[in-house]
Design goal:
Blueprint: E1 40-43, E2 48-53, E3 56-61, E4 98-102, E5 112-116, E6 119-126, E7 131-136, E8 150-151, E9 157-158, E10 165-166, E11 172-174, E12 195-196, E13 198-201, E14 204-207, E15 239-244, H1 248-255, H2 261-264, E16 288-294, E17 297-302, E18 305-310, E19 314-320, H3 321-325, H4 331-334, E20 338-349, E21 352-358, H5 365-370, H6 373-385, H7 388-401, H8 406-409, H9 418-429, H10 451-454, H11 466-495, H12 503-531
Antiparallel strand pairs: 1-2, 2-3, 4-14, 5-6, 6-7, 7-12, 8-9, 9-10, 10-11, 13-14, 15-21, 16-17, 17-18, 18-19, 19-20, 20-21
Helix pairs in contact: 1-9, 11-12
Length: about 550
């Protein structure tokens, strides 16, 4: 039987990855199998056969459903070649815009420490120019972090170690220790702070992680990716952000994978009942396909909508709600009910990533206007927590295998893995297989902390979310007030003479004290579970 040979440039060639991209014309000799004993397994009878050898899996594609088909092995991934034989252009990780933080979670009164691509950054509001600025988080004097500084009365960024002050262009405007009649050392080039190009789009601060002077006006030539629904007034979707103890690659491929939702998030996310239910959770085959893949990302198609990966950070999808749910309503109504996913995944450092999300929708928008963001974040963080530990361990296992590529470690036989395979194919084909850290890290992952620290919400979300931080402080204050009221009420009852207050009033006050104490205890548990740590045990769900 004839077999389609996979391109040497592809990480995986599969029936759910469309072959619309340019393919290498270099041909490799067929491997000789007469001395090998192959173990073949047929999946979806009309699509794929797989060979498993130790920890490695190789993917095949056939044109027939016959299990006895002759097969050809995919060659190891090689650099993609253009038609003229030149190596295909590599993705430059430092020539793209990266989202840093939503401005709704940035306080203009203080500088904020953030990290992108291993770069330590400080984000601060320059009130003199009415712009958010992004600097290298290092004072040129003694390398103290500027993010621990303050914004002085003249709107300058001040290092609190020795008081050096910088304007929005990174120029040093004051060195208190320099004598006024001495040389103007504050004007020396060495006294300036590195400034990164930055802009605001979709109410998010973006940074260009290359401070070379040639990129000073890069915003005039290249803007951050534009996502129309984020600026469409008919859509509403509050934003959120969170830091994760696993890498950018694991984060983004997990968000591209709808097949895990009924299992890792069982009971937390609505999942339509499939026509044929094979288990309690309701997992089913998914029709997914990558239609176009190039250096800028890929377009994806699934049964209920379209998806787009915009390299390197953005994955967004548009879902036809009524088609997804199978609702029987008019065509006019169907065309107006859309739910979108906007996920921004930022590489922070090996084993660490930042996630910015929004779920714009054009129905029920009034809910977002009256319900505070922190209430949405409680449920969203519970969903994120339910597979956080799985992903952290998964990344460490892949690293421990020391696989030369992701395909050597993972077995992906179904169409539901199409987008994950598409992302890994893009990463291998254009991105060098891993994030380019410019030699700042050895490549080793940080050690795994205890589970409670790993799944901590306070330091990974609450402190950097203005809404949740305010809610946590307010609820904590209410908890203390309830405890105080309980103690004061009991004290009044205790010191009041018996003939000065009736038994009914005394009983009422004691009841109030008990209720206040019980409410404070319940509130303390609520605060801990929703703003600090909420474990998720899949065995008891």
């Amino acid at each position: 039987m004839d077999v389609l040979r996979a391109s040497s440039s592809t990480l995986v060639h599969s029936p759910y990855i469309s072959t619309t991209t340019t393919r290498s014309k270099t041909q490799f000799p067929k491997p000789i199998f007469h001395h090998l004993k192959l173990k073949l397994t047929v999946f979806d009878s009309s699509f794929t056969l797989f060979e498993r050898n130790g920890s490695k899996s190789r993917l095949f594609m056939t044109l027939s459903s016959s299990p006895a088909s002759t097969t050809e092995s995919i060659e190891p991934p090689m650099p993609e070649l253009e038609a003229d034989g030149r190596e295909k252009k590599r993705f430059d990780w430092y020539s793209h815009w990266y989202p840093v933080m939503p401005i709704c979670d940035l306080d203009k009164r203080v500088p904020h420490a953030k990290k992108v691509l291993g770069l330590d950054l400080v984000v601060w509001w320059d009130r003199n120019e009415n712009e958010w600025k992004v600097f290298d988080d290092t004072c040129p004097h003694r390398l103290a972090p500027l993010s621990d500084g303050r914004i002085d009365q003249w709107g300058r960024l001040q290092c609190v170690y020795h008081g050096w002050c910088f304007n929005g262009n990174g120029d040093c405007k004051l060195i208190p220790q320099a004598p006024p009649d001495g040389p103007p050392v504050h004007t020396f080039k060495e006294a300036c702070v590195t400034v990164y190009p930055s802009t605001v789009q979709h109410d998010i601060v973006w940074v260009w992680p290359n401070a070379d002077p040639q990129y000073k006006d890069i915003i005039m030539k290249k803007k951050p990716p534009y996502i129309p629904v984020l600026d469409d007034p008919s859509f509403s979707g509050p934003m959120g952000n969170r830091e994760f103890p696993f890498g950018y690659e694991v984060l983004i491929e997990n968000l591209m994978d709808p097949a895990h939702l009924p299992y890792a998030h069982y009971g937390l996310i609505f999942n339509p009942t499939p026509k044929v239910k094979v288990d309690r959770e309701g997992g089913s085959p998914l029709g997914m396909k990558v239609e176009k893949l190039d250096i800028n990302g890929f377009n994806g198609k699934q049964d209920w909508g379209c998806s787009y990966f915009i390299a390197p950070c953005i994955y967004h999808a548009s879902i036809d709600v009524d088609q997804r749910n199978g609702s029987a309503i008019s065509e006019t109504e169907k065309s107006n009910r859309r739910f979108c996913l906007v996920f921004m995944c930022i590489p922070v450092s090996p084993g660490k990533s930042r996630f910015i999300w929004s779920f714009p929708k054009n129905f029920g928008v009034w809910i977002d206007k009256i319900v505070p963001r922190w209430m949405f974040h409680i449920g969203q963080n519970l969903i994120l927590d339910s597979d956080l530990y799985l992903l952290h361990v998964q990344e460490h296992k892949i690293m421990e295998l020391e696989a030369t590529n992701w395909q050597e470690a993972c077995f992906v036989p179904t169409k539901s893995d199409a987008f994950v395979v598409g992302f890994r194919r893009w990463l291998n084909k254009y991105g060098g297989g891993v994030v380019d850290w410019k030699g700042k890290f050895s490549g080793a992952l940080p050690p795994s902390p205890p589970r409670e620290q790993l799944m901590d919400r306070y330091w990974t979300h609450v402190v950097s979310c203005k809404s949740c931080n305010t809610a946590q402080k307010g609820l904590k204050t209410l908890e203390v007030m309830l405890q105080t009221m309980s103690v004061i009420t009991i004290g009044i009852v205790a010191v009041t003479k018996q003939n000065m207050i009736s038994m009914v009033a005394k009983s009422t006050m004691v009841s109030m004290a008990i209720i206040c104490f019980a409410a404070s205890k319940w509130l303390a548990q609520f605060i801990y579970k929703n703003f600090h740590y909420h474990d998720y045990n899949h065995a008891f769900v």
